[in-house]
From TrEMBL:
Keywords: 4Fe-4S, Iron, Iron-sulfur, Metal-binding. Residues 598-612 have a biased composition (Gly residues). PANTHER family: NADH-QUINONE OXIDOREDUCTASE SUBUNIT G (PTHR43105:SF10), RESPIRATORY NITRATE REDUCTASE (PTHR43105). Transmembrane segments: none annotated. Pfam families: Molybdop_Fe4S4, Molybdopterin, Molydop_binding. GO terms for cellular component: membrane. GO terms for molecular function: 4 iron, 4 sulfur cluster binding; metal ion binding; molybdopterin cofactor binding; NADH dehydrogenase activity. Residues 582-596 have a biased composition (Basic and acidic residues). This is Molybdopterin oxidoreductase family protein. Residues 546-615 are annotated as: Disordered. Residues 8-68 form the 4Fe-4S Mo/W bis-MGD-type domain.
């Protein structure tokens, strides 16, 4: 697909897919004298995966050489109505004209931008800046809104700061008990499973909460299978028992939290028998879970999409955080709450400006000080920056009406958005749609202009993984002729729209500006450089650049020099205890001290007076709230937006399979993965199948108020009899998201992918 990189040695980099960002190396190869490609070489030094890769990562180079990847721009011709090859000049001109004409005719907010959680930090930053400075629109959001936004909102509310895991993933192996809520990590990120295996080998316990007996649940000491949409009640029931059994850590609650009386009262209204009725989880299992969780000296709760993708996702996560706070399992080593982010850069994607209400550095768009800081870096007046815009689904829902032109980068909402048939009709109703992608995705196929862009192994950039560790993806190949990078695309469009400067194509140059824009913000990257990332194999944010001024200010009050509440409030790891991965890096040695004090990974970074070491573990001394205390959320159970009734009597929940990733735009192009997971299916319990008269493989229509999806039956006792499951990676008749409910969480604006009411029919196909 490309030319040989200057280096013939393997190039250290990271997987293009999920939020683990597994380390791998790429070695250039030219089989049989054909075009130069790359093969994956094991890289054991990166502590998150220690060389292990799942099938998606291992086969990722296949997409680089895929026959269906785009290598020339496409423009829809008015005469034929078809997408046909065009020059880059014509394609970029058409996009610039399309966006500008819409803005002139209908106002700047009639132009929208939709990004992706797979874009590098540099691209996310440049896309946010492009939207707000060049287009002047408030209408930008990204598909990461569908990923962990509920956990982000709950994190903010409880701790004053949102970072997926406030500790390194390796800590999971060294705690005493892990509650995994709504995560099928054995299929979504298999290399992470080894940390749980080590936990169990060391005598730790694993509790899995999932309506299905998944591959992950099979590993559990205790599997709780609540009815979909009732995780909140389950957490409240556990907290009720914690109180009733006298297991509250009163000293911790008193010293480090606020809001306990209200949260306690809410939990006491959810007595175990009531919770059993709501969730279907028997009271003895609730008691067993509390005994395991509180019986260990250290415990963690990790949530994923299960509790988060609900119309009450923020409160649901809040209830699990409450459990951690009441038992003193937060703000200390080897205990706490964390979110297992999904997309490769779901974390960094929002930290740097793709999210509708945020500016780089995780600053709030409606904060005057934040606007002034970022505007100064961008060389514009603060008043020139638009305010917060619509969230992802609301933006898609407004297409063709309030928002009439759209630039879309790194996303395929026609498959991944809820109520997808409606989203498809909104996309079709646009005056103008431009898409930058590596293949002609289902969404790109609707566009007026499609731009072929470079892939992960063909360009350099940084990603922020689920731990808040900023890693460097290095180019191992040059892109094929006819392909440009997303940064080149944004630079070309900006130039056509009057911004000759400010949008460089060089990723490191963009990162240098990002560092300045993030300085002093909650997600402070100012002390992180490409060089440091390379030397340290990743740096955890917050990592402020140490200057005389910031050292003094942060050392004293944990407050930034400009007076804003910044990273200093969360900077609770001292320089000597900063090594995140001590256990791994001190191979063969005794286990590292829980806080990493015996580790060696941070090298000279940790020495007093040197650069900030980064912050592997947050909140050890104080939380990032104004008063330093974590806040309980007084949350109560409420039903899903759509409950079963006579017409739609069954619950549908959706999710992922091992061999496919998100909308499948890349993984469906890999033969080995397609063989392993060729298409959608409907998992249902034998009792449900019998009632329907369905045999294994029979075509089942799953029908909701929004549409129908048809896929073969997969009959299994691993699912509750009142629930069916569909994976969502495919388009066409089996598109699960045709059926899902776009009911939004009032805080995070997360759609309710995880639960809706359906009826089942035997279909002819
Ligand atoms: Fe890639 Fe995630 Fe698989 Fe690791 S677990 S190889 S990051 S898809």
């Amino acid at each position: 697909p490309g030319e040989h990189s200057p280096a013939s040695d393997p190039v250290d980099t990271h997987c293009p897919y999920c939020s683990l960002q597994c380390g791998m190396a790429l070695r250039p190869v030219a089989p049989d004298g054909g075009p130069v490609g790359v093969e994956v070489v094991e890289r054991t030094a990166f502590p998150v995966n220690r060389g292990a890769l799942c099938g998606k990562g291992r086969t990722a180079p296949a997409v680089l050489s895929s026959r269906v990847r785009l290598t020339e721009p496409l423009v829809r011709r008015p005469d034929s109505g078809r997408l046909e090859p065009a020059t880059w000049e014509e394609a970029l001109d058409r996009i610039a004209e399309g966006l500008a004409a819409t803005g002139r005719a209908y106002g700047r907010d009639a132009v929208g931008v939709f990004g992706g959680g797979g874009l590098t930090n540099e691209k996310a930053y440049a896309l946010g800046k492009f939207a707000r400075v060049v287009l002047g629109t408030s209408q930008i959001d990204y598909n990461g809104r569908f990923c962990m936004s509920s956990a982000a909102a709950a994190h903010q509310r409880a701790f004053g700061l949102d970072r997926g895991l406030p500790f390194p993933l390796a800590d999971v192996a060294r705690t005493g008990c892990v509650v995994l809520v709504g995560s099928n990590l054995a299929e979504t990120m298999p290399p992470a499973l080894r940390h749980l295996t080590e936990l169990k080998e060391a005598g730790g316990r694993l509790i899995v909460v999932d309506p299905r007996r998944t591959r992950t649940a099979e590993q559990a000491d205790l599997h709780l299978a609540p009815r979909p949409g009732t995780d909140l009640a389950l957490a409240l029931g556990l907290l009720h028992l914690v109180v009733a059994e006298g297991r509250v850590d009163e000293e911790f609650v008193e010293r480090r939290t606020s809001g306990w009386p209200e949260a306690r009262a809410a939990a006491m209204a959810h007595w175990p028998e009531l919770v059993e009725r709501i969730t279907g989880v028997p009271v003895p299992e609730l008691r067993k879970a509390v005994t395991m969780f509180c019986g260990a000296e250290n415990s963690m709760v990790l949530t994923a999409r299960g509790p988060e993708q609900q119309s009450k996702g923020t409160d649901t996560v809040g209830a699990w955080i409450n459990l951690c706070l009441a038992t003193g399992r937060a703000g200390r080593p080897l205990s706490g709450y964390g979110c297992l982010t999904g997309q490769g850069n779901g974390q960094g994607g929002r930290e740097h400006g793709q999210k509708a209400d945020q500016l780089p550095g995780y600053r709030k768009l409606d904060d005057p000080a934040a606007r002034a800081h970022v505007a100064a870096v961008w060389g514009v007046e603060p008043d020139a920056l638009p305010g917060p815009g619509r969230s992802a689904y609301e933006l898609l829902d407004a297409l063709g009406r309030d928002v009439r032109a759209l630039l879309l980068m790194g996303s395929n909402p026609l498959v991944s958005a809820p109520r997808a048939a409606h989203v498809e009709s909104r996309l079709r109703s646009l005056d103008f749609l431009a898409v930058a992608d590596v293949v002609l995705s289902e969404t790109a196929a609707l566009a007026d202009v499609v731009l072929p862009v470079a892939q992960w192994a063909e360009e350099t950039g940084t990603m922020t993984n689920l731990e808040g560790r900023v890693v460097l993806r290095r180019a191992a190949l040059t892109p094929p002729p006819g392909v440009r990078t997303d940064l080149q695309v944004l630079g070309g469009l900006a130039a056509r729209l009057g911004w000759e400067k400010g949008f460089p194509a060089d990723a490191e140059e963009v990162f240098e500006e990002l560092r300045r824009a993030s300085a002093g913000g909650p997600a402070d990257y100012s002390g992180i450089t490409y060089r440091r990332i390379a030397e340290e194999d990743g740096v955890f944010w917050p990592c402020p650049e140490r200057t005389e001024r910031t050292e003094g200010a942060m050392g004293a009050e944990g407050t930034e020099a400009d007076g804003s509440e910044g990273a200093g409030r969360a900077d609770s790891v001292d320089a000597e205890s900063a090594d995140p991965d001590g256990a791994e890096r001190a191979e063969g040695a005794e286990r590292a001290h829980p806080d990493g004090a015996k580790g060696t990974g941070s090298g000279s970074a940790g020495r007093a007076g040197g650069p900030h070491p980064g912050t592997p573990r947050l909140f050890l001394d104080r939380f990032a709230t104004d008063d330093g205390r974590a806040r309980f959320a007084p949350v109560g159970h409420r039903p899903a937006a759509e409950e079963p009734d006579a017409e739609y009597p069954v619950l549908l929940t959706t999710g992922r399979v091992l061999a496919q990733y998100q909308s499948g735009a890349q993984t469906r192009r890999v033969a080995e993965l397609n063989e392993a997971a060729p298409g959608p299916y409907v998992q249902l319990h034998p009792r449900l199948a019998e009632r329907l008269g369905a045999d294994e493989g029979a075509p089942i229509a799953v029908v909701s108020r929004r549409g129908r999806a048809v896929a073969p039956a997969r009959i299994s006792r691993d699912i509750r009899p009142d629930t069916v499951f569909m994976p969502f990676h495919w388009a066409g008749p089996g598109r699960a998201n045709t059926v899902t409910n776009p009911a939004l969480d009032p805080v995070s604006r997360m759609p309710e992918f995880k639960v809706c009411a359906v009826r089942l029919e035997l279909s002819e196909g």
